[in-house]
Design a protein that fits this description.
This protein is mainly beta and 444 residues long. Helix content is 9%, strand content 37%.
């Protein structure tokens, strides 16, 4: 009744008395939940020492009710204290009147590249009668092997560059070589569909691995198990038992020629790249493909594993893509070559960053800083006198076991050896680098 405020107050207090009289003496812990309600909350207590002297919310409210009958006439229309004080509703947020401040987005920082000494040509070895397609270095770092279109496997002394031996046995172009670090064996694969095992103590073929239906383009030895993997034009990746010559697996899935296979002791144990623009990671335990990477727009001709970081790179004419093992998650692109990459290798860095080296179809050796992706050198191979200017492609490459010499197999029928310039310093060859602007096209 708005015409009689004192009567309204009295009715409200009587109603509160009837509702809450039976819990007047309930302990404080039992009324905590009720005290959380805004209209029953007791005033804040500043001093903990006086906490027990203060009555709880229910007791205080009922005390006010019981004393209100005597004091109400004297107080008159004075504004009462206690539960009948109206509760102010919380204010709703109005986005039109409040300033919305978004947190700052973390930008992708491009690391500054490390300084690397430039590489230069050290030696040119002539002796092949056709394109040199592949090279492989001996684990003892005393010699290396090369082979190509002349069907010969030549053994060279690494220190002097003299020819030590020539092995014959293939009837077509030899496309891949692999030297075992646990046995005196050399493995070769050829376009004549043959995979051969050579005993280097007898210099003769002791095993043949039959099964490929077309030319075999690549070969890789497992670092810890006595198995080898081959791939070729029949689009299959075949896993062989090194001793019994039995085919363990025939991995299908690629739809075009398999260009390169890499192996490591950790998962995935074999990685293959193909002309069908796909990179596949193979699970030996399950006997099938575990991951298929389809990010490339052009054929993948070369793969390299970075053993120190548990990553690998797949090289193509569109981008060199870095992937994280074991699931093949994409990390970044390394660009700047603009040509078909036939071969690649990663040199582990001493000063904090490794080097990715790629040999292209137009005769350039490209050197990238691994972390930043900065191409610090691009070196064009000079064709041997007597060769056409177009015969400067680089088909294969490898580093010696010390990582100080780069051996390349080239189209001009030569094997070239490069090394870092020992006289170069950051003052004579300063780092020419400017942070690039990232775009969606560059990243993916």
């Amino acid at each position: 009744r708005p015409e009689d405020p004192s009567g309204t107050e009295m009715l409200l207090r009587m109603k509160m008395h009837d509702e809450y009289e039976h819990i007047r003496d309930v302990p404080e812990q039992a009324t905590d939940a009720m005290a959380l309600k805004p209209f029953l909350a007791a005033p804040a207590i500043a001093d903990d020492t006086t906490r027990e002297a203060k009555p709880n919310a229910i007791t205080q409210m009922l005390t006010d009710i019981s004393g209100s009958s005597d004091s109400a006439p004297s107080r008159g229309l004075e504004r009462p204290i206690g539960p009948i004080v109206p509760f102010e509703a919380p204010r709703t947020k109005d986005p039109s009147t409040e300033v919305q401040i978004a947190p700052r987005v973390q930008r992708h920082e491009i690391p500054k590249p490390e300084w690397h000494a430039p590489w230069k040509l050290m030696r040119v070895l002539s002796g092949h009668e056709g394109w040199v397609r592949t090279v492989a270095c001996d684990p003892t770092n005393e010699w290396f092997a090369s082979s190509g279109n002349d069907r010969l496997i030549k053994i060279w002394d690494l220190a002097s560059g003299t020819l030590k031996l020539s092995l014959t046995g293939h009837v077509s172009t030899v496309r891949g070589l692999a030297i075992s670090d646990r046995h005196p064996y050399l493995f070769s694969c050829s376009e004549d569909c043959e995979v051969k095992c050579w005993d280097l103590e007898q210099n003769m073929v002791i095993r043949n691995y039959h099964g490929h239906l077309s030319g075999v383009y690549c070969i890789s030895l497992h670092p810890t198990l006595n198995i080898l993997a081959t791939g070729g034009r029949d689009s299959a990746v075949r896993i062989w038992d090194m001793r019994t010559k039995v085919g363990i697996f025939v991995f299908g899935g690629h739809t075009n020629a398999v260009n390169d296979i890499q192996s490591q002791a950790a998962e995935p144990q074999f990685i293959s790249g193909s002309m069908d623009r796909m990179v596949r990671l193979w699970d030996l335990a399950a006997g099938k493909c575990s991951v298929t990477l389809t990010n490339h727009k052009k054929s993948v001709r070369s793969l390299s594993i970075h053993h120190g970081e548990y990553t690998f790179v797949s090289c193509s004419s569109d981008n060199n893509k870095v992937w994280k093992c074991p699931r093949g998650s994409f990390e970044r692109n390394i660009t700047g070559h603009g040509a078909i990459v036939n071969a690649s290798v990663i040199k582990d860095g001493i000063r904090g960053s490794s080097i990715l080296i790629g040999g292209t179809d137009n005769g350039y050796l490209n050197f990238w800083d691994w972390k930043s992706g900065h191409r610090f050198q691009s070196l064009q191979a000079i064709p041997q006198p007597g060769s056409m200017s177009a015969e400067n492609s680089i088909f294969g490459m490898t580093l010696d076991k010390s990582g100080s010499r780069l051996i390349t197999a080239e189209c001009d029928k030569t094997v070239k050896i490069y090394r870092e310039d020992p006289n170069a310093t950051p003052e004579t060859h300063p780092l020419d680098w400017k942070a690039p602007k990232l775009s969606a096209a560059q990243r993916y």
